[in-house]
Amino acid sequence: MDNLNLTTLQRGQTMVNDVAIDAFAAGFRGSLLTSKDMDYNEARTIWNAMIDRRPGLIARCAGAADVVRAVRFARDNNLLVSVRGGGHGIAGNAVCEGGIVIDLSAMKSVRVDPQTKRARIEPGATLADVDKETLAFGLVLPTGINSTTGIAGLTLGGGFGWLTRKFGLTLDNLLSVDVVTADGGLVKASETERPDLFWALRGGGGNFGVVTSFEFQLNPLNTEVLAGLVVHPFADAEKVLKEYRQALEAAPDELTCWVVMRQAPPLPFLPAEWHGKEIVVLAMCYCGEIAAGEKAAARLRAIGNPIADVVGPVPFTGWQQAFDPLLTPGARNYWKSQDFASLSDAAIDVLLKAVRKLPGPECEIFIGHVGGAAGRVPTEATAFPQRSSHFVMNVHARWREAGMDGSCIGWARELFEATKPHAVGTAYINFMPEDEGDRVETAYGANYARLAEIKRRYDPNNLFRMNQNVKPMAAVRAA
User: Fold this and answer.
1) Each residue of 254-272: pLDDT tens digit?
2) What residues contact residue 19 under an 8 Å CB cut-off, 6+ apart?
3) What phi and psi, each to the nearest 5 degrees, are found at residue 177?
């Protein structure tokens, strides 16, 4: 790591002094990568293939001390900073252009205490890493639906999935964090220590520092759940969605059912004649006793005349990975999201019109079913803003060729605009693309002013701005 000579690492228009860079490298326990290193291109590549940025330096941290050094180096040299956990975020903020990436992907430890039912998790861990350790003790942390997602970004932005209705959001199960703030200090935040910072970190994303360790409360879970897919022809979509909506009115917290509308992939349980045709999928999970789950899911499974019903007892770890093949890295992705208090007839009509105009075979609309335990937390209790929404829509445009950018992005934006009259106005920041910076204040609603004030105290110069950025309060007043 001697004499890195980072000619591309810039502070504004001024090159950073090589002596300062070498001093940073000398005390760094992890590895530092520049464009001259063989691993550089792999290290700057993230899940969304639309993002192609070339940082001046990638600091792969081995522990909290490395993170402290990296933050201080970036601060002292006025560098653009991005923070990488799992590298799965749709906006691509894990990688910056010309600055420094604080890469946490090597910090993957997951330590479970089965007596206290708590886990200490480092920010580079994926959901698969977490599930493997916690479920070995019959415990679980409610997270997302794609096992390659990183725990850090998921938690800081919210975190919802199959267990949210029963156990709350991922951030609702957070007990404390160790975090490196913009002044380069390593501090602890919890309900009793720096409670304002702890409040902001639960939903405020990466705006307030770099978390080096998360402490979570875990929940008991049987290793098997009742889960699977019920697939319907798109011709029946209106009837299916309206009966789906009615069936959920009496759903217990243990039951979650999401809707996916897309062209059918070549799933082995679907007849070949359906491959490539539009379908409506009810994806459900019951996280209690199997017999009770069969009763709770019966009304959903009785809807219409499905093409296939493959709901049954499965290991939860397997169900957590069921959608991974449809979300592999390497594709171009653009998302738009809305929150709905209810799934109105008018909203359903808009969604169905959009499915009839899918621009590619991997593009889809999914409706996440939330509420339950997550919806009973007061809006002001955490920075996470949308406790009242019962459904979250993600317009997921996904394609392979750059020549399809216009049609796929245009389709997502058109549907987003068409659903605005039926949405509540908040947004899940983890689903927001990089061009939605002007939506951040609206997305946080009544919580934004408090976030901006906490940002002023902990990051007044907006060092951590590669995110869905909350501007420090002074900057907000001056705007």
Assistant:
1) 999 999 999 999 999 999 9
2) none
3) -140, 150
- Tokens at 358, concatenated: 């899918």
Share of the chain above pLDDT 90, in %: 91
- Largest interatomic CA distance in the chain: 70
Q: Residue 32: what are its φ and ψ, rounded to 5°? A: -115, 130
Helix (H) or strand (E) holding 353: helix 345-355
Question: How many Cα atoms occupy the beta-carbon half-sphere of 274 within 13 Å?
Answer: 21
CA 123 to chain centre: 13
Q: Among 58, 82, 201, which residue's Cα sits nearest to residue 464? A: 82
pLDDT digits (tens, 9 = 90+) for 108-166: 999 999 999 999 999 999 999 999 999 999 999 999 999 999 999 999 999 999 999 99
> For the residues of 161-230, what is the DSSP string, one character each?
STTHHHH--TGGGEEEEEEE-TTS-EEEEESSSSHHHHHHHTTSGGGS-EEEEEEEE-EE--SEEEEEEE
Q: Which residues contact 41 (CB under 8 A, 6 or more apart)?
A: none
The answer, as to whether pTM is greater than 0.90, is yes
In angstroms, rounded to a whole number, what is the distance separating the alpha carbons of residues 416 and 390?
18
